[in-house]
Amino acid sequence: MMNQLQSIFKIPELKKRILYTLSILILIRVGAHIPIPGINTEALATAMSNMGNTLFGLYDMFAGGAFNKATLFALGIMPYISASIIIQLLGSVIPYFQKLQKEGEEGRKKITQLTRYGTILIAALQSLGVATFLSSPAMSVQMSGRIVPVVPHPGIGFTLLTMLALTTGTVLIMWLGERITERGIGNGISLIIMIGIVARFPNVIVSEITLISEGVRGFLTDAVLIIILFAVVAFVVLLTQGKRKIPVQYAKRVVGRKVYGGQATHIPLRVNTAGVMPIIFAQAIMFIPSTFATFFPNSTFIQAVTSVFSVTHPVYWIVFGLMIVFFTYFYTAIAFNPIEVADNMKKSGGFIPGVRPGKKTAEFIDNILTKVTLPGSIFLAIVAIFPYILTKVMNVDYNLASFFGGTSIIIIVGVALDTLQQIESHLLMRHYDGFLKSGRIRSRR
């Protein structure tokens, strides 16, 4: 490992890319601690402390704690992700976007431009909602025996300033993420999300050290937790990298004096084609009752529904797991189109041995994809509900347990593997040993 780390700094280009990426990530973390003007930060912290299990808490996780503090980067990269998902969904139903997806590089540039415009629009609307939410009387808290509002001087001036600050912060994060992708190492947007999640880890470690020093938890319990963490990470790696390869043969074609085709390849069908999106969709829906409860604190019915759909109730996790299975199939159907794959194979002279080209090939691929997605969706649901199991079995705080499963661990492992493979490709191109030389990552075979 030390030899590989030394090799990184022997390659000037790779060293420059890594340092460039680290500098931008540090800049983003600095911006996540600069509050927008006109906010009483102490009152805000008190008001937001009870919203961890709502949509605001989910949003705050992706923003790296910036939303909880109403900083310049409070919206984080979520407007960009929302715009990207909307464009991707539109590409499945609207012919104009389907045409752009098939136009190659020019189409991708147009889609990127539309995504940027969509990001600005979504960020402006969300920042307006944030300004209205912070200025509402419900955000007033009791401090030192008196009611203190989060926004001491609400009004049109505060609203416009908040919209300008938050929208600009989102656009800046989007631009910095694109710069990482272009001039740094790894996917910039994914790294920004990952660094926001990892930023919560030091606070969790400090809390664990405090519990050990106070005698609440023993070293043996923490040792078991570390072993479980390694096991979960290994399981998520297998889930992320698992593939079902469908063999494809290309027929030989004679054009003039040259012979084209004749090679054998394969179609890699991932066990988890949908990635982390099913968990995000399911989590967003499951947080709706608790989010509504914050706006209607005096409604008995809403409070009763909220108690059933709280993260401490078994019903929440059962429904959560079933929704993950559903959204895994839903998003896989959007992300992977067997009919389009079969048509492209037919145009290129490719075929699956023993299967007729065209409709039969599409049905064959769809059948295998359905079978592969079922265990993948079940395993994904198990990973998502594992923090709840850990809190019940070992009485672990949920902030710590969230790193043992759910959205956090899948994003961290997925982004880390992608970045590590990009670093390794730079090393192998210059005849250095990669980090994954002795591993079993299938992409190396």
Give me the CATH superfamily of the largest domain. SecY subunit domain
Q: Let me know the largest β-sheet.
A: 3 strands, antiparallel
Spell the H/E element sequence: HHHHHHHEEHHHHEEEEHHHHHEHHH
Distance between the termini: 21 Å
Structural class designation: mainly alpha
How many helical stretches? 19
What is the name of the CATH architecture of the largest domain?
Orthogonal Bundle
* Beta-strand fraction estimate: 5-15%
Global mean pLDDT: 78
Output the strand order for the largest sheet.
6-3-7
**Runs with pLDDT <50, length 5+?**
438-445
Give the overall silhouette.
globular
Helical amount? 55-70%
What does this structure look like?
The protein has 445 residues and is mainly alpha-helical. The protein has helices at residues 2-8, 12-31, 41-48, 55-62, 78-93, 95-101, 105-135, 156-183, 188-198, 201-213, 219-241, 277-286, 288-295, 300-308, 314-335, 338-347, 359-394, 398-401, 406-429; strands spanning 141-143, 146-148, 243-250, 253-255, 258-260, 264-270, 350-351. The protein has a three-stranded antiparallel β-sheet with strand order 6-3-7. It has a two-stranded antiparallel sheet with strand order 1-2. Strands 4-5 form a two-stranded antiparallel ribbon.
SSE topology sketch:
Blueprint: H1 2-8, H2 12-31, H3 41-48, H4 55-62, H5 78-93, H6 95-101, H7 105-135, E1 141-143, E2 146-148, H8 156-183, H9 188-198, H10 201-213, H11 219-241, E3 243-250, E4 253-255, E5 258-260, E6 264-270, H12 277-286, H13 288-295, H14 300-308, H15 314-335, H16 338-347, E7 350-351, H17 359-394, H18 398-401, H19 406-429
Antiparallel strand pairs: 1-2, 3-6, 3-7, 4-5
